[in-house]
Amino acid sequence: MASKYLFFPLFLAAAALCYFSTSPAAQVEAGGAQVVLYFTSALPSGSAPIIFGVDGVKAQLSSGQKYQIKVNANSHVHVSADYGMKFTYFESYSPGRDKGRAAVYWRIDDWGFSISYDNVHFKNVAPWETE
Fold first, then answer.
1. Is the pLDDT confidence value at 9 over 90?
2. Under DSSP, is residue 108 helix (H, G, I), strand (E, B) or coil?
3. Fewer Cβ neighbours under 10 Å: the N or C end of the chain?
4. Share of the chain above pLDDT 90, in %
């Protein structure tokens, strides 16, 4: 008789442990809300490559190259980038600013990083800095 009453609390404890131990990355892979960030280098041909990191994931883009990464729609995602002697650091995805978007497009040029939601109309967001 006691085993009947002990089974349910043990089942709840095991289910809670499985639910709360799932990492945010695993939640994205398991079907959590995702957003795709697209980065396109619009620098002139022959320019030095851009070296950047998206929340720890490193990438390098030469002129005309593209890069994409899927991120959790509930997380804040940051980018740090170097271009020759220039650098920048900014938030590439913010749930408050980008809520409801399936994709966020970033163009990288001599000015810096510009954002778009339709990959046509871009707004300057993060300029290159030198100091």
1. no
2. strand
3. C
4. 72
The count of other CB atoms within 10 Å of the CB of residue 106 is 24
- CB neighbourhood size of 49 (10 A): 16
One-letter amino acid for residue 37 of the chain: L
Q: What is the average pLDDT across 15-44?
A: 62
- Identity of residue 45: S
State the residue for tokens 């300057």: 124
Dihedrals phi, psi of 6, to nearest 5 degrees: -85, -25
Count the Cβ atoms, other than its own, within 10 Å of residue 16: 10
Residue 110 three-state SS:
coil
* Distance from C-alpha of 31 to C-alpha of 29, rounded to nearest angstrom: 5
DSSP letters, 49-98, are PEEEEETTEEEEE-TT-EEEEEEETTS-EEEEEEETTEEEEEEEE-HHHH
When pLDDT is averaged across residues 34-54 and rounded to a whole number, the result is 95
What distance in Å separates the CA atoms of residue 130 and residue 91, rounded to the nearest whole number?
Answer: 19
42 with 22: CB under 8 angstroms?
no
Q: Copy the structure tokens of residue 57.
A: 């994931």
